[in-house]
From TrEMBL:
Domain ABC transmembrane type-1: 79-270
Protein name as annotated: L-arabinose transport system permease protein AraQ
Keyword Transmembrane: yes
Localization per record: Cell membrane
GO terms under biological process: transmembrane transport
Cellular component terms per the entry's GO annotation: plasma membrane
Topology term for the membrane: Multi-pass membrane protein
Pfam families according to UniProt: BPD_transp_1 (PF00528)
Organismal lineage: unclassified sequences, metagenomes, ecological metagenomes
């Protein structure tokens, strides 16, 4: 009887793991297939694409699609524009989010809960609703057609989410460690640098990944606020491919694939940092 129970438990254990594996496999394929589709079609000629859009290239690989994207479309310059916006967006979010989240998580002050709830309430306001008044305000102070205007807009949109994410993580930091840091002579910023940032690194890394990708891939905000052609971000410029190169999908796929590389690189780099940060938090 006991052997039957053990075998039954083992069967359901193996069955459960198999189901989880299949679900993860389906999700992985669904996420990776668009990249695979863009890759194989970006290396085809126009005729090769229309003959077999789902198969591997059966002719000479068309690397000139990428060369043309660099030489004529100036995609590297567009990368620079997007990187400026995304880098300073993430930098500001990390600095402001860390300071604000530490205060909400570990500092007692009057009205803390009300202010925190008011900040979270802004998450329910769609960005499109605030874009017109934001544009009018930015136009009056010279922030239209200016990278700073786009960065400030992203701060306004993403900071509440950053605070919510970091505050939840910082609350798990033991108060004893902060008290020990205070005894050792650390002030407000010293406790953040020596205790909060190392132990809260998983949330900080996740914020870097998520909001870098959000700002890099965003089309709506820079399209509204940036007017000059030489200041366009890569996504705004690539949207023009739909009109200019409608009849050349391989060229479009080459641009889309190149635009995905920086975001994927940031994710790959900081994914390891999340695991490392979790380990540091567990050890401490």
């Amino acid at each position: 009887m006991a052997k039957k129970i053990v075998k039954k438990r083992k069967f359901w254990h193996v069955f459960g793991r198999a189901v989880i594996f299949l679900v993860l496999l389906v999700l992985a394929i669904s996420f990776l297939y668009p990249l695979y589709y863009m890759l194989i079609n970006s290396l085809k000629s126009l005729s090769g694409y229309y003959v077999n859009p789902f198969g591997l290239p059966n002719e000479q690989l068309q690397w000139q699609n990428f060369a043309t994207m660099i030489s004529q479309f100036k995609i590297l310059k567009l990368f620079g524009n997007s990187f400026i916006v995304s880098f300073f967006t993430v930098l500001g979010l990390v600095v402001m989010g860390t300071l604000a989240s530490f205060s909400f998580a570990k500092v007692d002050f009057k009205g803390k809960d009300g202010i925190y709830l008011a900040i979270l309430a802004t998450l329910f306001v769609p960005a499109q609703v605030t874009m017109i008044p934001m544009y009018i305000s930015f136009a009056k102070v010279g922030l239209v057609d200016n990278y700073l205007g786009v960065i400030i807009a992203y701060w306004a949109m993403f900071l509440p989410e950053t605070i919510m994410l970091m505050t939840a993580n910082f609350k798990s930091i033991p108060n004893e460690l902060l008290e020990a840091a205070t005894i050792d002579g650390c002030g407000y910023f010293g406790r953040i640098r020596n205790v909060v940032m190392p132990m809260g690194w998983p949330a900080i890394s996740l914020s870097i990944i998520f909001f870098f990708i959000c700002s890099w891939n965003d089309l709506f905000t820079p399209m509204v606020l940036l007017k000059s052609m030489d200041k366009r971000t890569v996504m705004v410029a690539l949207s023009s491919l739909i009109g200019r190169y409608t009849g050349d999908p391989p060229f479009q796929y080459a641009g889309l694939l190149m635009s995905a590389i920086p975001a994927l690189a940031v994710y790959a780099i900081f994914q390891k940092s999340i695991v490392k940060g979790m380990s540091m938090g567990a050890i401490k």
